[in-house]
Design brief:
The protein is 58% helix and 9% strand. With 289 residues, it is an alpha/beta fold.
């Protein structure tokens, strides 16, 4: 393989505001995309880019490696809420499912990718079998398994998810806070963290009927619409909740420091419906760009 230039890795796909919809959001619906937020001013960014390009190449076309230059694509940086450089994100089905900031050892990067690309089929198969089990049954089963195998930290994450599903946010938060560092980046932990953040937003918030009355009286009451969107999401009405955030974004994308965009990105991480997320992500992109 020809060695790439230090600042111009030839296998990397450069993402810009002009091609993000086609080359990243839509492309990741059918194939995972590993995205590096980088700058040619940083040697760490350059070296990480070389490593990611090499690892992605080993997947023989099953993984796309893309780069976003933070110096020229500030809008995209803001869209993803990136705060440190370099930052790496794995995109699947139109949404980020994992990632890390800074530079990780090669072994840890390979482990991260293996969790999603190597073990995705058996994990999905397990998920298909579980809906018949109620949250309470899952809680009882996981508690028994933890008693038998307390060293299995992944069971704590499973239990936290079951507790959240049952409505016990406080217990779920306690378990989430106690997870070991290697599980903090798990996409399920990120999903749970997002659900808990939404639940916290609703503390002392008006009920749905009151919020709807406020919006009927003033369609530009973005605060009421924002809270209504969160209530609908937490209540399991994902599409209706997302519509509220999109309506705010359409009316005033800068309201409350871009809160509607932040709500949408956070919501995408908590929703299992890939088609819904993909559709709403494209609508969000059209409103932003």
């Amino acid at each position: 393989m020809t060695q790439p230039s230090p600042t111009q890795p030839t296998a990397a796909l450069d993402i810009t505001t002009a091609n993000i919809e086609r080359e990243l959001l839509q492309a990741s619906m059918t194939q995972p995309v590993l995205v590096l937020f980088w700058t040619p001013r940083s040697n760490g960014s350059i070296e990480l880019g070389k490593l990611l390009e090499s690892i992605a190449g080993e997947y023989q076309g099953a993984l796309t490696f893309a780069r976003i230059n933070v110096d020229s694509e500030a809008q995209i940086v803001g869209m993803f809420g990136v705060r440190s450089i370099p930052t790496t994100i794995l995109m699947r089905e139109g949404q980020p499912v994992d990632g890390f900031g800074g530079v990780l050892p090669e072994a840890e990067i390979r482990d991260l990718l293996a969790r999603h690309l190597g073990a995705s089929v058996p994990m999905d198969a397990d998920d298909v079998e579980q809906p018949a089990e109620s949250p309470q049954q899952a809680i009882e089963r996981l508690q028994r398994e933890l008693e038998a195998s307390p060293e299995r930290a992944e069971l704590k994450l499973d239990l936290a998810l079951a507790l959240m599903q049952s409505g016990d946010a406080r217990a779920a938060q306690s378990l989430l806070d106690a997870l070991p560092a290697n599980l903090e980046g798990d996409d399920r932990a990120k999903r749970l963290r997002g659900q808990l953040e939404f639940a916290e937003v609703l503390r002392n918030a008006p009920d749905i009927a009151e919020l709807e009355r406020r919006i009927a009286a003033n369609p530009n009451d973005h605060e009421a619409r924002d809270l209504l969107g969160v209530r609908l999401l937490v209540g399991g009405h994902s599409e209706a909740g997302l519509e509220q955030f999109l309506a705010i974004l359409k009316a005033d994308r800068h309201w409350n420091e871009g809160l509607a965009r932040k709500r949408l990105i956070a919501a995408f991480l908590t929703i299992d419906d890939a088609d819904l997320v993909g559709t709403c992500r494209r609508r969000m992109s059209s409103l932003l760009f």
